[in-house]
Amino acid sequence: GAVVSQHPSRVICKSGTSVKIECRSLDFQATTMFWYRQFPKQSLMLMATSNEGSKATYEQGVEKDKFLINHASLTLSTLTVTSAHPEDSSFYICSARDFWGQRTDTQYFGPGTRLTVL
Amino acid sequence: GIQVEQSPPDLILQEGANSTLRCNFSDSVNNLQWFHQNPWGQLINLFYIPSGTKQNGRLSATTVATERYSLLYISSSQTTDSGVYFCAVERGDNRLAFGKGNQVVVIP
Questions:
Q1: Beta-bridge mates of residue A49
Q2: Nearest CA in chain A to B10
Q3: How close does chain B come to A96, measured CA to CA in Å?
Q4: pLDDT exceeds 60 at position B107
Q5: pLDDT tens digit string along B58-77?
Q6: Cα–Cα distance between B64 and B56 in angstroms, integer?
Q7: What is the sign, positive or negative, of the torsion defined by CA atoms of B75, B103, A91, B61?
Q8: Which terminus has fewer CB within 10 Å in chain A: N or C?
Q9: Which residue of A has its CA nearest to B92?
């Protein structure tokens, strides 16, 4: 149980285009999902917290107009990188909290999406 | 914000050896999790352990919340244990703060 999927797993795009990444909780409902960014050989940095049916909360320094987050249902959150530039190239990882699970504080992570902007 | 420090940053082990990874945190926490990130980037939940001791096979973890540290023990290490181990903590605001990780390489 507690499986989180991401799609796509890898994407290469041209500078200036927008890229959408999906995060789904497959076997549980998640009122809260999180988006992280990880640069090579570094730790995970929280970008934003996504709550179903409400606006996302962004961490300091994260541009909300650049990284659009939508959490339309209890099993799906999307991150759209708008007008992507090479410096946006990174590994993006989502996580979801198992709302109904016995351990409601546990976060489960997706497999990540590697974005390369040319 | 809360600070999370992991040590050692890098560790090379001979297969079959035991090891201990440490996570220190700067404030009281509601949640502490240990993860293993495999070479493909997937974070695998190892333990949810805000306090106490847990064991799962060759892995075990202990968190002493009053002293603000957690330990992850790997016994009889195998090459599949290679990867980065992350400790992450949360203070009750839903936001996990990650340490910089322990890079573990197990040599056959």
A1: A34, A57
A2: A41
A3: 11
A4: yes
A5: 999 999 999 999 999 999 99
A6: 18
A7: positive
A8: N
A9: A105
